[in-house]
């Protein structure tokens, strides 16, 4: 009887377990949603984020005030000769002059002829002084004077300016040849000319210009063994140029004492007469 009772209890217990739909777990079941809490304190600033894309360009601002006048730059190269202008209008007729008096034309013609002869002699005398006494050379636009006083380049430039000119700058083949003949006839091998290195590029090469700050204008006659693109030696100042008796150019130390050539422009006076030639030293 007791065994039967125990068996019935076990069968009933198993039936209750199999009939139950609930499953026993260790998970906690969440409760109902609570009310909204109070706002907390402001947190620390976060890390700086990446830069965003650029925005749209803003509206153009108002023009600023006009600045002060800048310093005058270096003189640029001479421009091309302009076209000939139109002929002006004819001027008004002058008043009628007084009647002339009878003159002895033959006597005046004789005086004029003698004056022409004297002028011719004077021109020959001036030419003799320029070419023989002073030893000048000239072109249609300039005189050239060889100064046989050894000086450094800067001193030579100042010396030419004190004479009323500048250190000679051979800007074409004809002028270069005239100066070469001038130097050769004097028995010299080289002289200073007005060509000098202006600056050095980032790669160390030098840019050469004339003494009047104008570019070389396409005329250069460097010696074949001369490397003008190489940087100057740090222990020397080889940024000046000499004209050799061979007709070529070469770099030379600006501190070297050398002879030099000065040039003087022929400025025209009213009436077509030229200014006097420069005085020799």
UniProtKB/TrEMBL annotation:
InterPro entries cross-referenced by the UniProt entry: C-type_lectin-like (IPR001304), C-type_lectin-like/link_sf (IPR016186), C-type_lectin_CS (IPR018378), CLec_Tetranectin-domain (IPR051663), Collagen (IPR008160), CTDL_fold (IPR016187)
Signal peptide range in chain numbering: 1-19
Compartments reported by the entry: Secreted
GO cellular component: collagen trimer; extracellular space
Keyword Nuclease: no
NADP is among the record's keywords: no
Molecular function per GO: carbohydrate binding; growth factor activity
Region (Disordered): 34-83
Sorted UniProt keywords: Calcium, Collagen, Disulfide bond, Lectin, Secreted, Signal
Ranges of Low complexity composition bias in the record: 48-63
One annotated GO biological process: ossification
SUPFAM superfamilies: C-type lectin-like (SSF56436)
Domain C-type lectin, residue spans: 139-263
Compositional bias per record (Basic and acidic residues), positions renumbered to this chain: 34-47
Superkingdom of origin: Eukaryota
Name of this protein: C-type lectin domain-containing protein
Species: Salarias fasciatus (Jewelled blenny)
Lineage of the organism: Eukaryota, Metazoa, Chordata, Craniata, Vertebrata
